[in-house]
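S., here's the first fold you wanted:
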Amino acid sequence: PKSKGNQYFVTCEKGARAAAKDLGVELLFDGPTNSDPAKQNEIVENWISLGVDVIAAACENKDGLSTALRSAQEKGIKVVTYDADAQPDARSFFVNQATEKGIGDALLDNAAQLIGNEGEFAIITANLTAANQNAWIEAIKARQAEKYPNLKLVDIKPCDDLKDKAQQETTNLLSAHPNLKAVISVCSPGVPGAAEAVKQAGKTGAVKVVGLGLPSENKAYVKEGVTQAVILWKVEDLGYLTIQAGAALAQGTLKPGDSEFDAGKLGKMKIEGDNILLGTPFAFTKENIDQFDF
């Protein structure tokens, strides 16, 4: 994991342990106590000296960890990445929780449905240079052009990954655009930040809030009806799929060029190129959010 104490990776570990049990394999789960990329390298180097069969890594520093993972491959250790990828030559497969298009489509489809497929919406992002978030925003724009001619994107505001700044930016958006119908956040602190602004402005229900984030950070707003949907993926399934992929790679039942593989209780999973796809993102709503603890 990128870090051990993070609730997201605690949930990943739960799925990973379930897969290890199903497969009868030994799982070593270790990561930095905070998101320290150098510590990830140390752990990988230790595992190389132990002579493990497979390493699965969520890369905090893509370039830095790739060097250590290449060393592992040179020693005959199989490598997969999950959650955050390495350089393609440093692993065999990336277990991809969601494609850029999948994320963009899920965010806009949920927002559009909530506002009757028409009206103004705005986007909160972490910063205007975040490559992954810019890719999701491009996917949102493409979906809007293709499917929702009556939706209008009025502004994109950065919040520097800070909840308080997201709240301030959303407050400004509500003032500048009195007909705003929805706010979509593509960074996790932006979701509760936007929700707090909508709540304080007395616009609960009138302005819909949708975004990418953890259910636990948004549960109160979802239950109050301020935030309508939190989009993510089933994190436990991501951990489960990663161990299934690593084991299949080590056993030779998963090979480069395959278009699908059997992932135990998850069934047949699709592979596009060297990406194993967990599937479409999941919407956490008032009806189901209590079932999840991350």
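And the second, which I think is the more interesting of the pair:
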Amino acid sequence: MTAGDGGAAAAGDDAGRMWWSRRFLDVLGSFTDHGRLHRGWTYARQGRVKDLRVRPHEVSARVLGPEPYGVAIGVGPIDEGSWRAVAAELASQPLLRARLLEGETPPELEWAFAQAGVPLLPDSPHDLHLMCECPGYGEPCEHAAAVLCLLAEAFDRDPSLLLTWRGGSRERLLHGLRQASAKDAPDPFDVGDEPLRAAGFWTAGPAPAEPREHAAPAPPDLLLQLLDPPAIKIRRRPLTDVLRPAYEAMSRA
């Protein structure tokens, strides 16, 4: 996936507007030499970073110096079991799940990854594999630093690039989230191990608990968000788009 061509205004003061890119820049600043990081920002602002591409587990680019230098920055993969654990953790948080299905990227997403035992963002230089064709030393060199700076700005524009770099995607995460939600849903026909008894069958059960006064109301179209959309269209519009105004009207009524 191409993240940008590295124009002069592509990085710098505008980077770090979102929480995930700010966190990424904080980690970058914690282990990068200050002078080298400053030169990296300068290169990024001058438009020297070209062909920035984000692929699963690797970011690549060319950085113009005395000659073009190829840069590749790898990150460790997240295995399939860990992705399922992340989806299960997200599925256990109804409001967080709803925000993700609405297209948001809440800060709690990082916490869910941590709970699953895998960091969403690199924690240290040991989590990154830095490669540059330049003859210089240091990790990162100013060319790799420039790519990392521009990458932070790309994350600002499109947070799904962060999931791509980690070997996943927003679609994959939401699909796993729906599957985990369906798996954890109780079976309405499962009466458990307790046998049915004639005595007391028609007796009212315990009164339901009083609703919490301060509970946040669920969005009226929550059910449409949680379920996989059916392959049905009404006058070329998805069925969920047709039903959503009706759900909202019923909630107002």
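Why I say that: The two ends are 45 Å apart (CA to CA). Residues 34 and 40 are 10 Å apart (CA to CA).

Talk tomorrow,
H.
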